[in-house]
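Handout for the seminar on molecular recognition.
Each group receives one record of this type.
Step one: identify the two inputs.
Step two: read the structure output and locate the region that could contact L-homoserine.
Step three: write two sentences on what you found, then compare them with the reference statements printed after the record.
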Amino acid sequence: MDNVIKIGLLGAGTIGGSVIEVLKNNSDIIAERANTRIEIKNILVLPREIQKLHDAGLPATDNYDDILNDPEIKIVIELIGGIKVAKDFIIKAMEHGKHVVTANKDVVAQFGHELFEVADKNKVDFLFEASVGGAIPIIMPLKRSLTANKITEILGIVNGTTNYMLTKMSELGADYDTVLKEAQAKGYAEANPAADVEGKDAARKIAILASIAFNSRVTFDDVSVEGITKITPEDISYAAELGYVVKLLAVGRDTDSGIDVRVNPVFLNKNHPLASVNGVINAIFLRGYPIDEAMFYGPGAGKPTASAVVSDVIEIARGLTRGAESRFGCTCYHKHPICPVEETVSSYYIRLLVDDKPGVLGKIATTIGEVNVSLKSVVQTKAEHEHQVELVVITHEVKHKNILEAQNALQNLSVVDKIYNIIRVE
Ligand code: HSE
């Protein structure tokens, strides 16, 4: 095969290094499938990293212009992460007529609309399969293989760090701080874990998924976000007792009140396909017509992510060799409203510390009944102190605003000493 498509790689970290390896190790099958050989022409890294790449026989530069102004480079892979510089580099690449592949969820979730406009204007492809779920194919399946469907629900375990932590808390009965330290020691959680444990990473991913699934732009700011920092071993143990597992769930639903899009910990029925997704693995479950239900499962981060990046590159190369470019533009044809979080509907788990005396349960039921929250089941548990017991209740489905009112009312009830936690039940 004589023809070659040359690419510029921005960043040579974990995923970048893996992209270099995959292009080398799978070069023959890639050439067959792309209908051309694919070669890295240049790699943009920091000045201090250049020598290391040269020693490994790889090209390297610290000057982006070397890539932008190289007419041989047809595709740029952006793997530097972050927002400002990455966005600027992506736009410049497209303005120079280069197709772009990125794994950058932050940029896509915040500036997808703008980037698609630049791609359209410059008649180039902008692909981002790796931005959600690492190696798991979900963007292209939604845009292509599932495009006959009306998707009504998309649920994801899309953050490996928190899923690892919740899995460990559940297996070992360990508390949040202990598993966070262990996850950091293993390299699964960053020194500053805020983006993961506070749900922001997952929020960016569900913004991207919901935009594609419902054909309407959803940005990071539209997502209601709650992380896992308040989850305790006690909550996890009650969940198990009641037939649930605790998961950080990214939710996108097409409802009559708009797109319900949020990230929050949930009690997930242990029979749900996502309930058995453990450790750093990610999965995305969706429901639609006519497919009914489907789930995509796999590694959500790290070296396997090169699978998604290189597959996007091959997709573009196929188009280039067949003269069919710019096939996957923006698919947000509508502007649906976002359902305010107060209007979203769930069952809830509420764990309380209450006085251990006759009539308390009745008082609680009446109080929350006054704000239209009704009880589905009640578990009374061990005495915490001599005159107090822990009470766990599961409510019927209610609007979130009613639960906030119920929380307020319970706080003002003299028989309620403490509200430990309130968690949605899926
Ligand atoms: N920090 C993410 C996770 C991986 O824990 O899944 C990158 O998106």
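Reference statements: The mean pLDDT is 95. The chain has three domains: 4-135+303-322, 139-299, 342-425.
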